[in-house]
Automatic annotation (TrEMBL):
Main function: Activator of cell division through the inhibition of FtsZ GTPase activity, therefore promoting FtsZ assembly into bundles of protofilaments necessary for the formation of the division Z ring. It is recruited early at mid-cell but it is not essential for cell division.
Subcellular location: Cytoplasm
Species per Swiss-Prot/TrEMBL record: Methylocapsa palsarum
Top-rank lineage group of the source organism: Bacteria
InterPro entries linked: Cell_div_ZapA-like, Cell_div_ZapA-like_sf, Cell_div_ZapA_N
One Gene Ontology cellular component annotation held by this UniProt entry: cytosol
Keyword Cytoplasm: yes
Biological process per Gene Ontology, one example term: division septum assembly
Protein name, per record: Cell division protein ZapA
Complexes and interactors: Homodimer. Interacts with FtsZ.
Key words, A-Z: Cell cycle, Cell division, Cytoplasm, Septation
A family per Pfam: ZapA
Length: 120
């Protein structure tokens, strides 16, 4: 397990992460730090713990909204894929019925041809 030093709201923390995840952890840390800094600028010095809690809540709110939107988009995509698949199924069904009808017609033509050959 890797250990990374991160700085959030001016404080340094040692955080464990999987090998190779150090850069991603640094990126996430910057997002959290920027959110806290933005709130500090907006609300002033209201306490580090309070700012951290507010930042966590706003990030969680954004995450849940993004998940909700993603769910809507996934449902729309699924519906579109199903709609696109339906005409293909109808076309396959139509093609199958046409082939069967042509086969039946060919058999009738053969029967008629045999009957005509017998008469001659």
């Amino acid at each position: 397990m890797a250990q990374v030093k991160v700085t959030i709201a001016g404080r340094e923390y040692r955080v464990a992460c999987d090998e190779g995840e150090e850069e991603r952890l640094g990126e996430l840390t910057q997002i959290v730090d920027a959110r806290i800094q933005g709130m500090r600028e907006r609300f002033g010095e209201i306490g580090d713990q309070r700012l951290t809690v507010m930042a966590a809540i706003t990030l969680a709110d954004e995450m849940t909204e993004i998940k909700r939107r993603l769910g809507v988009l996934e449902a729309e995509l699924s519906a579109r894929r199903a709609a696109e698949a339906r005409p293909a199924n109808r076309q396959d069904e139509w093609t199958g019925r046409l082939a069967l009808t042509l086969e039946e017609a060919a058999l009738r033509i053969e029967d008629v041809a045999k009957a005509l050959n017998k008469r001659s």
